[in-house]
Design goal:
The complex is a heterodimer. Chain A is built from six helices and eleven strands. Chain A has one domain: Immunoglobulins (Immunoglobulin-like). Chain A starts with a helix and ends with a strand. A five-stranded antiparallel β-sheet of chain A has the order 2-3-4-8-7, with no helix packed on it. In chain A, 30% of the residues lie in helices and 31% in strands. By secondary structure, chain B is mainly alpha-helical. The radius of gyration of chain B is 31 Å and the shape is rod-shaped. The chains are: A alpha+beta, B mainly alpha. The interface between A and B is medium-sized, with 18 and 16 residues.
């Protein structure tokens, strides 16, 4: 009997150890979040255009904003600001990195300005999030205009989660209906498991 | 039968089995795997199509309501025998809106087709490679495939594959 109890105890110990979140340092954490295999970053390639949809956990946002210098950063304040929201970045680039999407295949400056205007002011309406079967529209939208310095365009988008949700923990699907390159609707699904397995960031300088 | 004869017979049998296995493996390696996919069914069952159509429908519906309003106003003006100039202006607006609606409808159909095939073609390539197929024939009811039995038909499997990839990303 004692042996059986011991065995069960060992199994429980292993299970609880396995289910514990890992603690990671900044570099390790960033590479975990940006790795496709971990389910937080999804890439879709359509006709030479690569759409990368990255879920940005709170720790990741804080890490990026503070640039790893946590001493001079108000962690608690920022965490409470982020509470109840979900943040993503959508990156668009050519697979060959030869040209910025804004300039790709254009024939006139008007066309360029039209594209730029779309990303600055209109693309927001073409983005939505389905969180646990509830469709949510962006609460915050920002197109990072890099003035063609890098061959990719980035959109930052944030959503208010349904009431009672402190942080994203249920299945969610981000959708972007691409109007410029006629790529159709680009989707990225983030599973409960992937969200549950996000490691803890060790806030150490 | 003598012992030696039995040994020779066993050896012959063994050789036959080995040769048979080699021939079978070689034949398998050279097998041409073919699948038939109902292109129309695949196109219609692709979830992105329904979603794009819903988005386009909302836009076209708004235009069609505008057209209805102009049409009603035009009929009222005609019934009341009000100013001829107003009627002319409304007639012009009506024909402009109608041609715009027709043009937008045709354009949205073209866009949806283009977007869907842009997504389906690489997915079909990927499916073919993953399944070790050498050829996927798209049956579209126009006579390119006159007959195929269920053995070659992989339409449902492909529909599941493309919709899963569409929903998940990656």
């Amino acid at each position: 009997m004692r042996k059986v109890i011991n065995c069960i105890g060992i199994v429980f110990l292993f299970l609880s150890l396995a289910s514990c979140k890992k603690n990671m340092k900044a570099g390790e954490y960033v590479s975990y979040v940006s790795k496709n295999d971990n389910g937080l970053r999804k890439n879709t390639v359509v006709d030479g255009f690569e759409f990368c949809m990255q879920y940005r956990p709170y720790d990741y946002i804080i890490l990026m904003e503070s640039k790893g210098n946590f001493k001079s950063y108000d962690l608690e304040k920022r965490s409470s600001e982020l509470k109840g929201t979900a943040w993503f970045s959508i990156t668009i680039k050519r697979s060959d990195n030869n040209s910025t999407p804004l300039r790709y295949g254009i024939t006139s400056i008007e066309e360029y300005n039209q594209r730029l205007n779309y990303y600055l002011n209109e693309a927001k309406k073409d983005i939505w999030l389905v969180y646990d079967n509830e469709t949510i529209h962006p609460a915050s939208y920002l197109f990072e205009n890099n003035y063609n310095l890098t061959p990719q365009e980035t959109i930052m988008v944030g959503f208010f989660l349904p009431a009672g949700e402190d942080y994203p923990k249920k299945n969610m699907q981000l959708s972007y209906n691409d109007q410029v390159f006629k790529s159709g609707i680009i989707k990225a699904t983030y599973s409960e498991d992937a969200l549950r397995n996000i490691p803890n960031l060790v806030y150490k300088n | 039968m003598q012992r030696n004869e039995i040994k020779i017979l066993c050896c012959c049998l063994l050789m036959c089995v080995i040769t048979g296995l080699i021939v079978f493996r070689l034949a398998e390696g050279h097998e041409r795997k073919i699948a038939v996919v109902d292109a129309v069914k695949l196109f219609d069952a692709y979830n992105m199509k329904t979603e794009l159509e819903d988005i386009a429908k909302a836009q076209l519906l708004a235009e069609s309501k505008q057209l209805d309003s102009i049409s009603n106003a035009l009929q009222m003006v005609k019934a009341m025998k009000a100013g001829e100039e107003d009627a002319k202006r409304l007639e012009y607006s009506y024909s402009y809106m109608k041609s715009k609606l027709d043009k937008d409808y045709a354009q949205s159909n073209r866009d949806i087709n283009e977007k869907i095939w842009k997504r389906l073609n690489p997915l079909l390539d990927e499916y073919g490679k993953k399944s070790g197929l050498h050829l996927i024939i798209g049956a579209n009811g126009m006579g390119s495939v006159l007959y195929n039995d269920a053995f070659y038909d992989r339409t449902n499997e492909v529909i599941k594959f493309v919709n899963k990839r569409y929903a998940e990303g990656n």
